[in-house]
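Following up on my earlier thread - several people asked me to post the actual chain instead of describing it. Fair enough. Here it is, all 55 residues.
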Amino acid sequence: MSFDFDAGKYALYLWPAFAISVVAFAWMITSSLLMARRWRREAERLRAELESTPS
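Reply from S.P.:
Thanks for posting it. Predicted structure:
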């Protein structure tokens, strides 16, 4: 499978739009992964705190 990267007269608009989209998706994925890691640490901290409290 080969792709034709020649965008012709639309290249001036197409390639920057493609680059912005790639950056936006990378930012969303990174942000989601970092937020999930943060929530996991918070849940573990709360679980440890709950287990250490006398009942």
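The mean pLDDT is 92. That should answer part of your original question.
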